[in-house]
Design brief:
With 287 residues, this protein is of the alpha/beta class. The chain contains 8 helices and 12 strands. Helix 3 links the parallel strand 3 and strand 4.
Length: 287
């Protein structure tokens, strides 16, 4: 099995390369930004042949920045994904593409099924939806869209690292408590993506790659403090209205996980269990 990982230098991409290294039957091409310009259709067409699977972890992830640069965000999150999907179709390769909860409106009150109708409320979500549609259209039998959310991990900037950094310099930290979601360890997601990529009979389509259970950003921050031996009472709840951002955020980003069963795979672990494992492994530290 020959696997191409795009975005291999990022938080998730680094974990994907590490997980794949544990499979003796896999040969991995780790393509970082300097190795492969996904905005170049010609480079993409030459990079994909010879691989059985492509896992795309590359993305424009600056949610607020996308509000004033939607074309640039769409070029990477949408047009480049279409180029990847087209190259995979020509080469007979499967494509596992990482997407986001932001393609959904966040107005629900119960977990979104994989069949939920997308309705993004910001530019970032719209750019990612372009990529999703390209994969599903160009690779109807070999394209996999895996939506994730609230990622944290050992590599790169993320919410958990920010909370620990702030804990070292502030007595209290204010965190919004009216947005609900599923904190997801990037290493656990990497394991799930690899399991899907290597499952020969997994049906193509949309999957939700988030931890089980749900909490708020405030609840997530309190758990980070507690598991690191800090007083969770130092985390104070505030409404989103007190922390305005250029891009609107979904109020409810809880995703359902029913489709993993049809792929013969179990959903990911409960979010707090995974967070405890990440802390124990040293993957959650100030940054």
């Amino acid at each position: 099995m020959k696997v191409l990982v795009t975005g291999a230098g990022g938080m998730l991409g680094s974990d994907l390369v590490a997980v794949l290294a544990g499979f003796s039957g896999c040969t991995v091409t780790a393509a970082r930004r300097a190795d492969l310009d996904l905005l170049s259709a010609a480079e993409v067409r030459s990079a994909v042949p010879g691989h059985d699977v492509v896992i795309n972890a590359a993305a424009w992830t600056n949610v607020d920045g996308a509000e004033t640069a939607e074309d640039a965000a769409t070029a990477l999150n949408g047009d480049a994904v279409a180029s990847l999907a087209s190259a995979c179709a020509a080469a007979g390769a499967r494509l596992v593409h990482v997407s986001t909860d932001y393609v959904l409106s966040g107005s629900a009150s119960s977990p979104y099924p994989e069949s939920a109708e997308p309705a993004p409320i910001n530019a970032y979500g719209r750019s990612k939806l372009v990529g999703e549609r390209a994969v599903l259209s160009l690779l109807p039998s070999s394209g996999y869209v895996v939506r994730t959310a609230w990622l944290y991990g050992e590599h790169g900037r993320n919410f958990a690292a920010t909370m620990l950094r702030l804990a070292a310099s502030r007595e209290t930290v204010n965190v919004v408590d009216d947005q609900r979601g599923q904190p997801t360890w990037s290493l656990e997601l990497a394991r799930q993506l690899v399991a899907l990529a290597l499952a020969p009979d997994a049906p193509a389509g949309v999957y939700h790659g988030t931890a089980s259970g749900e909490t708020t950003w405030h609840g997530f921050a309190q758990a980070i403090f507690e598991l690191n031996g800090l007083d969770p009472a130092r985390v104070r709840p505030i409404p989103s209205s007190e922390f305005p951002t250029p891009a609107a955020r979904p109020a409810y980003s809880v995703l359902g996980h029913d489709r993993w069963a049809v792929a013969g795979l179990a959903p990911m672990a409960e979010w707090r269990t995974a967070l405890a494992a990440a802390v124990a492994a040293g993957a959650v530290r100030a940054g």
